[in-house]
Amino acid sequence: MKYIAYKEDRKHGTFDFPIEFYHVTPTHPRYEMSYHWHIEYELIRILEGELLMTVSEDEFTAHAGDIVFVKGGLLH
Questions:
Q1: What's the pLDDT score for residue 12?
Q2: pTM of the model
Q3: How far is it, in rounded angstroms, from Cα 40 to Cα 55?
Q4: CA distance 50 to 57
Q5: Cα R_g (the chain), whole angstroms
Q6: CA pair distance 19, 12, nearest whole angstrom
Q7: Series of mean pLDDT values for 10-residue runs along the chain (76 residues)
Q8: Closest Cα partner for 42 from 65, 20, 23, 14?
Q9: Contacts within 8 Å (CB) and 24+ apart, 23-32
């Protein structure tokens, strides 16, 4: 796998406040996210339903009430 090819170039937040918030629902254009990585950490909170996640090579299902923490640099 060509790791560098999956780097997400989107900027998240600012230098002083490196946080970005996204509320993703089934109608959101990025509901099905392509495999990517970025230097920022990612925190995902599941409000309802389930989310099939792949982090590095580990696949699991997150459920309503779960919080998933993805360390920067990991493919997910």
A1: 81
A2: 0.82
A3: 14
A4: 19
A5: 13
A6: 6
A7: 84 81 86 87 92 94 96 92
A8: 20
A9: none
40 with 4: CB under 8 angstroms?
no
- Predicted pLDDT of residue 1: 63
Please tell me the predicted confidence (pLDDT) of residue 51.
Answer: 92
d(CA 50, CA 65): 10
Residues recorded for the chain: 76
Which residues have C-beta within 8 Å of that of residue 58, sequence separation ≥ 6? none
Give the pair of three-digit tokens for residue 49.
């339903």
Q: List for the chain the helix, strand, coil content (%; round to 5).
A: 5, 30, 65
